[in-house]
Structures
1.
Amino acid sequence: MKVLAPLDNVAEIDELLKAGAGEFYCSVLSEAWTQKYSIAAISRRPAKICNFKSFDELKVCTGIAHKAGVPVCLAINEHYYTEDQLPQLMDYVYEAIDAGIDSFMIADVGLLLLFRERNISKKRYISTGGTVFNSESAMFYKELGASGITLPRHLTIDEIRKTVTNISGLETCVFILNSRCPNVDGFCTFMHVQSADPSYKNACSLPYSVELLNQRKVGDTDLEREEVEQKNITACVRQQAWQRYHMDDYPCGLCALFEFHQMGIDAIKIVGRGNPAARKVKDLRVIHELLAILEEAKITKEEFRARARSLYRDNYQRECRTIMCYYPEVMTVPESASK
Amino acid sequence: MNSASVETGTEQALYITRIDGLKYYQDKFSRIYFGNEFCQRLIPAASDIRLAIDFALNNNLSFTFITPFVTNEGLELLKPLIDLVAREKPGSEIVFNDWGILQVLNRQGWDLQPVMGRLLNKMKRGPRLMNLLDILPDAAIEYYRGSNISTGLYSKFLKQNRVRRVELDNLLQGINLKLADTEIVASLYLPYAYITVSRFCLAASCDVYGDEDRVGIFPCHRECQKYTFQQENPVMGIPLLRKGNAIYFRNDKVPENMREQHIDRIVFQPELPA
């Protein structure tokens, strides 16, 4: 099981290789694209910090990565591109190939079709934006030339197991750390906007006032009415869950490595284009410590969970929380087992 | 919706998610949409599908079965229901919001017309875009009004898969699809446009005190049938409506250029779908 790690610049590549990156994914900022399309970014990450500044810098990195036997994938994962954008987009693709890119991460069916028509031989991985919720949709993408799929965050471990069964010939990738999106990425049509204005941070994280439209005022007695009122209040409070917890407050799926290892999942993805190098290194080290346990020792699921929780607590200084757990069904293991 | 503003000759369809929604039927509707786009737990029972089809047959209406994105489990649940639609009302439409369902439709060879659902049409809907229209370059605005559906390869691919119709939301920034050369037509959903959807449903168990932050894929008691929320932040400009696992905005303004956009059908939602 390889670890797919974000890479944003040449300064961090050696550290990340040393920490065990098994494959890199990245994006490149195109000034020409940004001038023309502004916030409609080529790779869903408009911020400079999330991108290589040039294909020359990318080329240096692919050279270093390839010497270490590590492939590099370029994200061209906006959910859709229009006809007007395609010529410029394909210039970008060919520049990336010249810079030594091994594969592409794609969400748009139109772009996949274009890759097929142009006989582009590089591997295509379906981004989580491709919304592969079942085996049939995985095979749909395989028929369009995909080499692998990234499964959505919004699947349980059991659903992942059932999806990856009977999809031979496709590499599989699941999320393991950071950015637990509240909404299904590939069906979310809010924009990712880069702005210093906090009003333009991700829409799912904005503070909202919440009002119940169909106020339920039922009950024959004061007690019953009070109970209904309490339920109404609770229901509104719940709608603000993503205001209380930022989706990047160290969400984690480490406990599920046990099952993913058993299933033969090919890659686990650390989200984090734009994260500081030290954070990426820490994420890689924590994962590799757990993978080493799975590879070398006979360990029960409960023991593994306890180890994962302990490592999470020690490295990120947070307790496990359902809302920050990628696969919260694992939290049925008693907390006492992790002491 | 101001129905008077719908151009003559535009088909009008009624979209309901539950069988009691048939109470909204009016003579102007020539088609019934029945089903759910957002949650596989809300896929209607076979008995309700039969009732909806019977209603369509008795009133000489066309029928569209609308389906959500699904896990393997949801797909297995859907197959016999799609088969039922094919048997009871051959030639009906199936709106798919999951490429896996199109795979199954192609393989089974049912006498049904596949229609690409609005979840697979990825045009941006976030209302904050309206604050930026004045400062964005023209090419960016065209992008936000456009779609990949009109790219040559994509539209050809859809036709090869027997998809001749796509479903659209009524975007605040306007629509400019350029479908004229594609032989593809479009339906426009009014008045609710979906913005986003989750499987970490905040309606599930939403009234259980102490579980406010228990967010994941957990069993529910269909609380979405009881609660509808409005959430506001000034930057959005308009209220967001949260029903079940999806968020919407309301836009009653019927676009003026429907014909030009190959929009030949209005899909009227009397309630937020759930």
Note: DSSP finds six helices and twelve strands in chain B.
2.
Amino acid sequence: MILWTLIKQDFRNLITTPVIVTVCMFYPWLLVGMFGFIFSSLYGGDGVTSYDYYGVTMILYLIISSVTVTPNTFMENKLRQGNIRIAYAPVSKVSIYMSKIISSYLFVGISFSIHMMIMNYFKIVNFGGDNFSYILVLFMVFLLFTVTLGGAVCVILKTEELTNMVLSNISSILAVLSGMFFPVDSLGKVVSNLSNLSPLKWILNSSFRIIYDNNFENYIAIIFGLILLSIASLIIMHMNYKPEDYI
Amino acid sequence: MESILRVKNLKKYYKENKAINGLSFDLYKGEILGFLGPNGAGKSTTINILSTILKHDEGEIKFFGRDIKDNKKWIKSQLGIVPQELAIFEEIPAYKNVEFFTSLYGLRGKELRNAVLEALKMVGLEDKKDSKPLTFSGGMKRRLNIACAIAHKPKILILDEPTVGIDPQSRNHILESIKKLRDNGTTIIYTTHYMEEVEEIADRIVIMDSGTKVAEGTIAELMESYRNTRMYKISIDSTSLSPIYKNKIKYDFLYEIEGIQKVVFADNCFSITTIKEIENLDKIILSLIDRNLKISHITSEEGNLEMIFLKLTGKKLRD
């Protein structure tokens, strides 16, 4: 019951944070629309439009960028104040950090799912047609990993600025390496090999295989791997989260 | 009187630094215990330990006879904490703030609604219950901060400098609310930088310095211990002060004058504690003039809490 009360409050806090609302409500349409339009002349030959490609890549990009949402619920200046009082209440530390993980997951997950459903239903972006649910599950498991990773890093680094800087840089590097903005294979063998190390590329490749080839190769392995990494992040969080660090 | 909190030989280290060094005191049911100390004395650390947020390294803390180590959750449910920083959500209405924090103590439904309204009424914010703290003055935010801590009716309320930086009207309101809470049976620990507040509301006082207790008692008891002392406050014209800083002249020379017990220099003013029976003001003045220090103002005070504090800690309370 207390956990539910905390989740509701954290959810309310997220709704009243303009940056997060903007990213979750408008960025998917803005990025998909912008990249889709700019590169529209390069696609369409084999039935794949630029909107199909950037629909998938930009939603994935926004999911990996959501890595900074959980730290925000912990450490954003205006929320930090109220979080202090939660620490004084008879609430377990597990409830405190789990409420932040769950509310971040629900807020970002629900908004991105709705965008994906609308884009898929109205055929603005091809998210797999009959295989849409598999893509949605893959993306939502990936989101679980990003919100838990964000939480783990923020309880280790303990400052909002440093956490955001580290996480933003890592997510941007992984995004660029995955080739979601432009092909990186032409940048040389080293970059190409590095690109293969980006988990984002594995997810991207798996998504396109499911959408266009009905091929589920590595799907279960990726889902399982992401869940394991999420659990590892939660363990790191549990071991490092100390309410007194935020007072 | 029944002791509901017993702290014995409390110690807290931050690496080599002893933040709390052997602090012991009791809190008795129904009293307001004033906690005084200069910055860095260890007041906030003590409060964070008492609120179970911070672990102590040595010593014993018992709330209602229960050890803090084994009863954290239960102890938290008995406490109300008003931290120095505002601990509220500014984007949600005052009522929702109090309601949320109070619900964490297990209150639900009608009981919760009544508790929230009662707390808001207690701090004089019932008319502003639907407004967001964003629109509040500093004083109103501080009052909401208190409402969030008292709505669940804690047995012990700990306030860490709850009146910092607010207008006199809000301060009076807060002090009146605290007295009302005490009269209704809440036991209170109150830390402040404002000596006059302690004199107004505290039943007993603990004075801390460098992580330890330097005095404890009622105001009357403390006054009695120092009834033979007097404090001169001698303001120095700032244009004549340069030698003190340039040549690092200390004011040890003042201790050579008979009767002087303590000298503190801050804000262009010497605070000199001296034995009342010994008339030495003329010697003090001459001694300062000899060192080319221009005196701009002199006052003499007897038997107030500030003097006791200064004598015990060698610091002004706001240092």
Note: The mean pLDDT of chain B is 88.
